[in-house]
Amino acid sequence: MRAMRIHGYGGPDVIVADEVPRPVPGDGELLVRVAATAFNPSEVGLRRGLLREVLPIGFPYTLGWDVSGTVVSAGAGFAAGNPVVGRLDAGGAAADYVVAPAGALVGLPPGVPVAAAAALPVAGLTAMQAVADLRAGQRVLVNGAGGAVGWFAVQLAKRAGAHVVATASARTAATVARSGADEIIDHTTTPLDGVGADVLLHLAPAAAPVGAVRPGGAIVSATGPVVAPPSVRSTHFVVAADPRRLAELVALVAAGELRIEIAATRPLTDLPAVHQDAEGDRLRGKVLLVPA
Ligand SMILES: NC(=O)c1ccc[n+]([C@@H]2O[C@H](COP(=O)([O-])OP(=O)(O)OC[C@H]3O[C@@H](n4cnc5c(N)ncnc54)[C@H](OP(=O)(O)O)[C@@H]3O)[C@@H](O)[C@H]2O)c1
Asked: How far away, in angstroms, is 80 Cα from ligand 1 center?
């Protein structure tokens, strides 16, 4: 089978399509035939070696934290052929098959498209964590609303009863217009200082618009610590793998209450080109990679 592996840190060309034996599941593990993995921007940092302190890896390393697919042989309450989704801490999903801890996998009910479900784990869980403390009636600015995380964050903030102000440049305006946001501001042409947000969800790889938050408000950042005035509470977080929360996201999708947006679907072997596009700032939103 093919696996998109890196044999050392470096540029996009360190990602190689290797022919490797199909992995064999051990105790508590399942073999999954991959329907899709999803690209996440943090994998650029991983591949370049910028995360080596926080996320040490060995080589060769197969990329891919998000997986959706079908269980190959029964075990741990899953039947052969069951569609599943999961977030794999050890990566490995950028391949034809991957071995996954059974506890990391969530079954997909009918009505949830299997490949598209790979958009959910990292991006959906990050959005869910970002909105966790929102309260109904709050004015919430989602910075980066047109991104993979932002797309879910807008919908989940609306479900929490917030009034959502979303940022979108011309590149993401059409996507954000479909997200359900109450107001949309083009951050490239309009200052955000007057927004008066109770909460800023900072989900963009850019300087946080700290001035958009009212005194006494809060900043929740997924992209690193944000320095704020003393009157503004500023926190940042790293997404946690949480199958229970992932199951909640899956249930929302199945019920038609959370929509998945796919920006592009590309062949698995395009992964080096996807990384190149990410480094060239040419990607927005969720890109799926599917084995041929
Ligand atoms: N903490 C964690 O555990 C965690 C987990 C997942 C992701 N992340 C991080 O969260 C960020 C978003 O991830 P993603 O997958 O959603 O990325 P993405 O799909 O590439 O989206 C990035 C978003 O940022 C917007 N943006 C870019 N420059 C901006 C600026 N100057 N001001 C406002 N918005 C700007 C983009 O839209 P426009 O170009 O239209 O502005 C786009 O909506 C990334 O930095 C990623 O590494 C962190």
From this structure: 37
Q: For 184-222, what is each residue's pLDDT tens digit? A: 999 999 999 999 999 999 999 999 999 999 999 999 999
Closest atom of ligand 1 to CA, residue 278: 20
Tokens of 222: 């997924």
**Residues with beta carbon inside 6 Å of ligand 1?**
40-42, 122-123, 126, 143-144, 146-150, 167-169, 171-172, 187, 203-206, 222-223, 237-239, 283-285
Which is the CATH superfamily of the domain at 2-120+260-290?
Medium-chain alcohol dehydrogenases, catalytic domain (3.90.180.10)
The CATH fold assigned to 124-236 is Rossmann fold (3.40.50)
CA distances from 7 to 2, 12, 31, 61 (A): 15, 12, 23, 7
Q: pTM (2 decimals)? A: 0.98
Q: Where are the domains of the chain?
A: 2-120+260-290, 124-236
Name the residue among 235, 257, 247, 275 with its Cα closest to residue 85: 247
**What is the whole-number distance in angstroms between the Cα of residue 26 and the centre of ligand 1?**
36
